[in-house]
Amino acid sequence: MFIIYMLIGALLVLAGGFLAIWYQAKKVRQIHREEIMAEKQIEANAQGFNHITDLRSLMQQNTPEQVLKWIGQNEKWFLDSRLFLPRNFAQKWLSIGKHCRRLVKLNTKLKEMTDELRKGGIIDEMRECESRCTRLAEEALDEIYRDMNIAPIATEEPEDQPEDQPEDQT
After folding, report:
1. How many CA atoms lie within 13 A of 61 on its CB side?
2. 86 burial class (0-12, 13-18, 19+ CB within 10 angstroms)?
3. Count of CB atoms within 10 A of residue 115's CB?
4. What predicted TM-score, i.e. pTM, was given to this entire model?
5. Model confidence over 15-38: pLDDT tens digits?
6. For residues 117 and 139, what is the distance between their CA atoms, to the nearest angstrom?
7. Could you give the CA distance from residue 62 to residue 56 in angstroms, rounded to a whole number?
8. Distance between CA atoms of 25 and 47, rounded to whole angstroms?
9. What are the tens digits of pLDDT across the range 117-170?
10. How far apart are the first and last CA of the chain?
11. How many whole angstroms separate alpha carbon 51 and alpha carbon 82?
12. Using an 8 Å Cβ cutoff, are 133 and 99 in contact?
């Protein structure tokens, strides 16, 4: 009978050892997967930061058609990185493209229009659309900052001195 208890004990020790090794391997795989995901997330956020700052600059210096072309050229990057970017960043990126397409349509409509009164309304809508794109780009950048848990760099604005007071020369 003693031998049976020894065999049962040995089998239980083997099973316990096997379960311990299996659990450790499972945890190691999980930690490794999380490390890879974190690396990809950092890389995607860094690229997202660069892309959104480039996009902001493009929006200020180029036509909506050129901005749309640039967005199209970077579509592969966006689709490949989307899983690792902050969710709201992706929404902002897509919304910027949508508003740029709207700007292109409004610009085409403006060129074809002859009624000056209606042109003013379209120009106002275009300005609103442009400011929305700028705001979306700023919000996308904020999403990157928030996801990386860093604060944006804040610069102090110089105070304007009244024109009638000379600057202190001391």
Report:
1. 7
2. buried
3. 9
4. 0.71
5. 999 999 999 999 999 999 999 999
6. 34
7. 10
8. 33
9. 788 888 889 999 999 999 999 999 999 999 988 887 777 777 766 555 555 554
10. 102
11. 13
12. yes
